[in-house]
Structure formats: C-alpha cells, structure tokens
Automatic annotation (TrEMBL):
Gene3D superfamilies: RelE-like. This is Plasmid stabilization system. It comes from Planktothrix tepida PCC 9214. Belongs to the RelE toxin family. PANTHER family: TOXIN PARE1-RELATED, TOXIN PARE2. The keyword Cell division does not apply. Keywords: Toxin-antitoxin system. It holds the Pfam family ParE_toxin. The keyword Ribonucleoprotein does not apply.
Length: 98
C-alpha cells in the first residue's frame, strides 16, 4: 500500500529551526540533517506499522546520527507526521498534538 505523507504545520517550523541550528554549527550539516529526516520518512512510508506505538495511536521512529524522533499517526492511507522532536525535549508537549 502507498501511504501519503501529511505534515502538521508545526512540523515544518521545527524542521526549519533544526536545519538553521545545524547549519549555523557547520556549513552542510543542516543538509545532512534533512537527508537523515528524509531517510526516516521513506522508511516510515514503506512500513509505517513496524514502529512502536508510544501514546494512544502515535508511533515513533528514531533518526540516525541526529538526536531527533519522528512522531506520526497512521490514518487510512495517510501517515500524519505530528512532530519531529529533539530527544531531550519534554515529550509531554506532544500530547496536545494528538
């Protein structure tokens, strides 16, 4: 089955902030971060049910190389990305997004 990725508005803002932060640390690191996010999103689209449920129907995937987590829900043929979250942030902030 082909899944369509849908991003909540907050996710794009989170990605932009993380990209800017990494790019300010070292030129090109922001692009590496986005490549790692793309890799995770591709894996999620291929096998969305293979990742653990962490809260209600929200699943989580770990980003390689960077301390980020991707939270998402599966609704019909859509994968709704609810957050791309730094792993040291308080996960309680995510509960309001479900």
């Amino acid at each position: 089955m082909n899944y369509v990725l849908v991003f909540r508005p907050e996710v794009r803002e989170e990605l932009n902030e993380a990209y800017d932060w990494y790019e300010n640390q070292q030129t090109g690191l922001g692009d590496d971060f986005l490549d790692s996010i793309d890799e995770v999103l591709n894996r999620i689209c291929q096998m969305p049910e293979s990742y653990p449920i962490v809260y209600r129907d929200v699943r989580r995937s770990v980003v390689r190389r960077f301390p980020y987590l991707v939270y998402y829900r599966i609704v019909s043929s859509r994968v709704i990305i609810t957050a791309i979250f730094h792993s040291r942030r308080d996960p309680k902030a995510l509960k309001i997004r479900t």
